[in-house]
Structure formats: C-alpha cells, structure tokens
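hiii, so i know i said id send this last week but things got crazy w the move. better late than never?? heres the sequnce for the chain we talked about at the cafe, plus the structure i predicted for it. fair warning i was half asleep when i ran it
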Amino acid sequence: MTTTTARILVILAAIAAAAALRLVPHPPNFMPIGALALFGGAMLGRRALAFAAPLGALVLSDLVLGVYPEIVFVYASVALTVLIGWAIPSRRPALAIGGAALASAVLFFIVTNFGTWLLSGFYPRTVEGLIACYVAAIPFFQNTLAADLFYSALLFGGFALIERLVPALRDAGRPVATSQTGR
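okay and structure toks below
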C-alpha cells in the first residue's frame, strides 16, 4: 500500500467514524456533517472523492434515519461546504479552520432554512415568512456552530496528531510545522 493510499484510507476512516456519530443520540443540530465536508474538502483536495466521502456518509446515515423534504438543500450545503474546505491553507492554521467552520455553519443555516421555508408549508412564501423561518431557526444555529467548531477541531486536530505520530501519513506536498524559534 502506498503512502498516499494509506493517507486517504485514514482520512476516509475518520469521515466514516464521524458520520456514524449522526446515528447516536445528540442535541438538535449537533452533528459532524459540516466538519466532515470541511475535512473532506481540505484533506482530499480538488477531486471527486472530496465530495463523494462526506456526501456518501450523509447518504448512508440518511438510509438509516430516513428521507426528509429538505434533503436536497442539506446535500447542497454539504457540497458547498466542501468548497469552503478547499480554501483552508495547506498548513491548516487553527484560525483558518475556525473561520471555515463558522462559514460552514452560516451557509448551512441560510441554505437549509431557505429550503424549510420553501418546502415545509409552515411559513407563508413571502419575505415576512422567510424572515420568520430564519428567526425561528436561530436557537438551532448555536448547536450547528458549536458542532462545526467541535468536530472540525476533533477531525483536523486528531489527524494532525496522527500525522505527527505516523510520519508516513504526511502529505508530501504539505509543509511540516516547525516551532516558532525554528529549532
């Protein structure tokens, strides 16, 4: 097995493990989906696998959990979040990951609640109805943001630790982090 293959398998295993967390009891909207998409985008690069891994994990968990009317909006937000993951620099600084997690949570909030407004029938299809839908969703946003930050830290931090412990898994094109003093 090549180093690249081993690296990809470890990344996919991390995505699968995090996706499995969607199936265990959790607070509303505290799921690793945004972090999975960010991690997939940042770690798997600009290739089909970056989209296939988080979307595939979502499909598998939805087969267990069931289909819902706004599913296309959730999948669209996950695909767009992969693109946000592409913007994370190769050194993967914590500030960039945190900013990407914030952007992911905001994107998910905007896209999925638009879908709820459009498809649910709970809100009139007016500007006022759209605003009411977004206002009603605000309490759920804090869990989405907390989950994206927590699971992003867990995935990116955990993988950085694995890279340090198993140097063969390091991306050959990625610079190795050094201390501030250069030693």
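btw Residues 107 and 113 are 10 Å apart (CA to CA). thought thatd interest u
miss u guys!!
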